[in-house]
Amino acid sequence: MADFDAIYQDETDPEENIEETHVTLVPDPIVVRGAGNMTVFGLSNRFNDEFPPGLQSRVAPEEYQATVARINSVLKKTLPVNVKWLFCGCMCCCCTLGCSLWPVICLSKRTQHSLNKLLEWENSRLYNKLGLRWRLTKQHCDSSSMMEYVLLIEYIPKIPIYRPD
C-alpha cells in the first residue's frame, strides 16, 4: 500500500511507439477568377480561358479550354436574364419594399446550381480520374472586402492504402 502514491519512470523508449506516417504534399489550389465586364451578385459573366501554368502536364490545354467554354456558355445563357430582372427589381424596389429583388436572387441561385451540376459532371467524367476537382467557391476580391465567385481547381491527394502482410 506504500507504493500507491509512488511515481515511476516509464521504461519504454518513445521511438518505439511512433508509427511511420506518410505526409503527402498537396500543391495550392489554382484559382480562376472571372474575366467579364459584368458581375451580378458576385458571379462574373465569363471566366478566363487562359491555361494556368499550374496545370501543366496534368490536363491538356484543349480540355481545360473546353471546360471553361462550357461554363461560359451557361453564364452567357443565364446572366443576361438576371441583369434584366435586377434592373426591373431596382426600378420597382421602393414600391414593393424590396420584394421585387427576390426573382433575381432566385435566378442567381439557379445559375450557381447549374454551374455546380456542370462541374460535378466534368469532375466525374474526367478530372477526378486525373486527381483534380473543380469547385465554384466564394472568395474575397483582391481590392475590396466584397465577395466574388471563382473556380477553384484542387488537387486530390492520393492516399496510400495500408495492406498488412
From TrEMBL:
Name the domain of life. Answer: Eukaryota
Chief location of this protein within or outside the cell: membrane
Decide whether keyword Membrane is in the record. Answer: yes
State the organism named in the record.
Answer: Leptosia nina
Q: Where in the cell is it found?
A: Membrane
What positions does the domain Golgin subfamily A member 7/ERF4 occupy?
45-134
Listed name of the protein:
Golgin subfamily A member 7/ERF4 domain-containing protein
Q: Does the keyword Membrane apply?
A: yes
One GO cellular component assignment for this chain's record is: membrane
Please provide the record's keywords in A-Z order: Membrane
